[in-house]
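Bug report (template v2)

What were you trying to do?
Predict the complex of my protein with NAP.

What happened?
Run completed; filing so the output is reviewed.

Input:
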Amino acid sequence: MLIICSRLHKKQSPPYVFIIWPFGKNPKLCDSLFNLFIIVMETVIITGTNRGIGFELTKQFLQAGFHVIATCRNPEAASDLNNLANDGNLSIFQLDVTSDESVSDFFTSLSGKVVDILINNAGIIGGDSQDIYNMDYKAWIQAFEVNTLAPFRLSAALIPNLKLAKRPRIVTVSSQMGSLNRKSTGSYAYRSSKAAVNKVMQVLSAELIDDGIIVCPVHPGWVQTDMGGQNAEITPHESASGLFELINSLTMEHSGRFWTWQGEEHLW
Ligand SMILES: NC(=O)c1ccc[n+]([C@@H]2O[C@H](COP(=O)([O-])OP(=O)(O)OC[C@H]3O[C@@H](n4cnc5c(N)ncnc54)[C@H](OP(=O)(O)O)[C@@H]3O)[C@@H](O)[C@H]2O)c1
């Protein structure tokens, strides 16, 4: 007799127990139970998980029974993340998303493994000086490294793993501050890096249609994190809850479009 314990996608749902044996003579029923199990045990990779939105996404995907591969630059110092580690579904990896070497090591460790969802969450604001009279160009380049180049680098590296999944998704946490449709001032580095990553994800979505890989940039709301500040409109929990629902509802129809944490389409 085979007993499989897991949880359904619904947050905080109780553990479910599937007993597969008497159905051994009914292969169709066995197959559907097996498929259900596979869906429940999807693997999600999230970058920048030691704090902020990434940490909250990690918590919520774990609560829902996913296998979470949580990455951050310095796992030893990631105390909140390490406190979640007694959940057997959590694997923590060191990853600096701007480093070719770090991404390559990470990719090698995942060789041949199925990845259902990649969430490019790690991001930076791009320095304190981002106006016409005072621009920190080094920080601007760094913003492009983290916010624009890294989501592409990681997505490209993980395509072989994503191709093994039933409903592969690449979700990049962008920002409405990069939207060309909104009139805005200042924050040149941040805005331009997010506008650019939106375009990168739109192009990627077109190139990955035939592989069935869904690609979406998302706006997480204005969130109370180190980046968003305490005056922001929503908590990390609210943002991650909305993103969780959105990510689990994505289909090819959504691919190549920009979405908000509330599941509404955003103008580019
Ligand atoms: N908060 C908002 O209101 C808001 C609004 C729109 C979009 N966003 C976007 O949402 C995402 C998450 O933001 P947040 O508010 O949670 O920011 P946060 O609290 O400042 O966290 C940023 C995360 O990114 C990580 N990170 C930065 N550079 C990295 C690198 N080179 N390699 C790996 N990880 C790196 C940080 O790790 P370290 O601790 O090692 O630095 C941290 O875990 C970002 O992409 C941001 O642009 C946020």
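What did the reviewer find?
The first helix runs from residue 27 to 40. Residues 1-24 have pLDDT under 50 and may be disordered.
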